[in-house]
């Protein structure tokens, strides 16, 4: 018994990475915004720290105990450096430092914010780092805090000596009073011995060194500002901004529901992408270009007709419904040029306009007079007009209930009457958007295939999925999709890109269609 074999293609990983990179690069404005914000943040940080200087002073904290009388006690156990570090950062020391610097007591709190006190492990040295706007003030601040701490420690030691001296003096007075009351000689000797001990204790207390430490390093005026320089901060801001921009671009790409590429359209629609209309810089370009003008959009429509004839439709006539999920896509342009391309291939074509929400196509196309009809064209539906497709020939166009006014309830029935039989002539039908009206579904059941026109960067993937479900439920055949990259650009950009002179008429050319094995996107080149 054998299970399914899963083949891992390691060559897919570069394609996925390139696809992810392309998705991120679509949001170049967001990435640029992140870089600008990062650079502004780095510049602001560099500017705020460009005029700050830090000076350092160090104080060796000494124990007040007799170093020769406490040989058995370790030096690091004689002084609690954690306690001394907290005392050095206290408000009392800050007030003393403010007085030494000639500042008022009210500025003691602000001075404490510019001070940083550190102590290395297994060390009795306190390091005072003071930051200020000028080198001289930084040095004065570091030295002032070191001196203020030593003065505070000396004051505390002197207060402890005075308290101990007063306590011994009280004991001496009590012993002397007891000696005066008792006249026994033996007791008098014992009391005198005790008094001698107390007097010796007084001498030891008064001879105690109350200086709590020494300044081993005085603060000097720094020559350069503290912290990283402009180059480091700007580089850090650039890196942070780039990371922020990439993150924002990834979030926007992940949350963006619009179709950005042919792969996304193919995945959402589960149908091939038959063509990609390139952007048209001229917003005033005519609707019909096949047979009249050259251009990439006209050649794409020619190649689309060639592909529909060879793959989606029979070799002869066929009926195609051209529809978009919502308004905004170039549905009419694709339908008109597709009809002209079919006529150029030798088919008798009927273009049916079934969109009542727009002006009739017959009012926007170059028409031939009625007396120009041939005997073969006498069987055209009533009200149809002949369209001059230039070098591509001509085709018929009729309106199936659409005049640009409000929707008519019998529009789909009129289209059914106008549709030719499966063996008579080719038909291209353009209707209202699929997700806005049900006319397209009624017409889809009478045609050979449905061609969906979607706007690139404007159509949502959910709309393509809903359109696929509706077409599948109606029993129609979805031939594929055509993506429109946009027709309207800015007028200034159109004028800049517009070449002087009249466009030459396109010569009849044979489109060369390249169909890769794994890519359904249409690639057209002139031959």
From TrEMBL:
Gene3D superfamilies: P-loop containing nucleotide triphosphate hydrolases (3.40.50.300). Signal peptide: none annotated. Keywords: Membrane, Transmembrane, Transmembrane helix. The chain crosses the membrane at residues 29-47, 230-251. It comes from the Bacteria. This is Lipopolysaccharide biosynthesis protein. It comes from Streptomyces tricolor.
